[in-house]
Amino acid sequence: xxxxxxxxxxxxxxxxxxxxxxxxxxxxxxxxxxxxxxxxxxxxxxxxxxxxxxxxxxxxxxxxxxxxxxxxxxxxxxxxxxxxxxxxxxxxxxxxxxxxxxxxxxxxxxxxxxxxxxxxxxxxxxxxxxxxxxxxxxxxxxxxxxxxxxxxxxxxxxxxxxxxxxxxxxxxxxxxxxxxxxxxxxxxxxxxxxxxxxxxxxxxxxxxxxxxxxxxxxxxxxxxxxxxxxxxxxxxxxxxxxxxxxxxxxxxxxxxxxxxxxxxxxxxxxxxxxxxxxxxxxxxxxxxxxxxxxxxxxxxxxxxxxxxxxxxxxxxxxxxxxxxxxxxxx
Length: 330
Fold this sequence. Notes:
By secondary structure, the chain is mostly helical. The protein folds into two domains: 3-179 and 297-326, 3-Layer(aba) Sandwich (Rossmann fold), CATH 3.40.50.620; 204-291, Tyrosyl-Transfer RNA Synthetase, CATH 1.10.240. Helix content is 56%, strand content 8%. It contains 13 helices and five strands. It has a three-stranded parallel beta sheet with strand order 1-2-3. Strands 4-5 form a two-stranded parallel ribbon. Helix 8 links the parallel strand 4 and strand 5. It is globular, with a radius of gyration of 21 Å.
């Protein structure tokens, strides 16, 4: 049997080049290897841990699904589905709620960071969503889970929960392994190279969106902060240029070393112009495919229906096993 891969992205905010390099491009490469059975999920239940406009959320769910395909995910080779359309995710989360110590959840750094900003408005869902993520993963017994650096702690929690369940009730869950690509796993903001590029960034100039037009891309790259000096070099003391080189490498298909050599005698301005050209060309291809897909409502619905049915055919068996082990089946 092929090894299995599971991953997903929230339909909140707008997908950007960090999402592409850190997730979508990697997923496409894994798919093309032919070595894996792959499930990609639009994790919409995670999105509602913070307030969402229902009309916009519905639009974003379909937008993310279409972008998956536009960025190279082939529905004939991989399955794409919407998390909330498979109730097994929420069901297993409740089981995990009841066996997971509070101390494990209180150590989650993302919750601590976000709750400081939100104060009393912080939802129980925001506190609890790492267990929903654990359910997303463990329902499908994946061998690999592609995640960014900021999600590694949550995958470690999923492994801990799986081990605890297996020891308490009997073997039910496979322990997943992290997969990420070092140079492009964490793309940083163009306006602040010490902060990760984010869908929720308050400074719009810090992120290049997958659906930005050519003029916007060129302006954002031109305004990107740089380091002191004038060397185009990938180095820890040059975080801004190192970030731009990682982006250049990811979208041009060349290594960072080759990108350094190519731009050895270039000024920052010349390098940025070259980078903008690479981005406009690649994102233009993605946008043309996206626009075709988002207009073909029937085709997108068929893809998502088939993905949902395939996912449920796997997860329903896992739920029956869990219910039997816990004692919830007659």
